[in-house]
Design a protein that fits this description.
141 residues; mainly alpha; elongated
Length: 141
């Protein structure tokens, strides 16, 4: 029986492999983000939207480090500081979308904020993966 990795693609440059790895990395970053959201909100008594921003900061650092070392072998931007800045800017677009979804689901539709976070995370993952893949982690033209 073929392994899951060989079914996806054996090269780390294969988009299927990158997407699968990004799911794992995203899951790890999500745990850091989600635990911060919960901790700051429940124990720190901070509004869930502010807690989501703090969790984002934790999640983006985790995601960046794992992404550059394991998910994406190609790098469009050679300057690591600029690359990280662009990674964060894309993440900031994602957090704006995340906060809008979180607010709508929690305040307008009355879904528990942690469930809203899970739903928003799926949307944001697809957004972040696509934009980062296109603008940061492809071979230069």
């Amino acid at each position: 029986m073929r392994s899951l990795k060989s079914l996806l693609c054996h090269k780390s440059s294969c988009i299927k492999t990158q997407f699968f790895r990004a799911l794992i990395v995203g899951g790890i970053a999500f745990l850091g983000d989600f635990m911060a959201l919960y901790g700051f909100t429940e124990w720190g008594q901070i509004n869930y939207l502010y807690s989501a921003c703090l969790g984002f900061v934790i999640g983006v650092f985790i995601n960046y480090q794992l992404s550059i070392h394991w998910v994406f072998p190609a790098r469009r931007v050679k300057n690591h500081y600029l690359e990280f800045l662009l990674f964060v800017i894309i993440g900031l677009m994602g957090i704006c979308l995340n906060l809008a979804i979180l607010y709508e689901l929690t305040e307008e539709i009355h879904i528990y904020y942690l469930y809203s976070k899970i739903i928003a995370t799926v949307v944001i993952f697809i957004f972040n993966f696509g934009v980062r893949k296109i603008y940061l982690f492809t071979q230069p033209a």
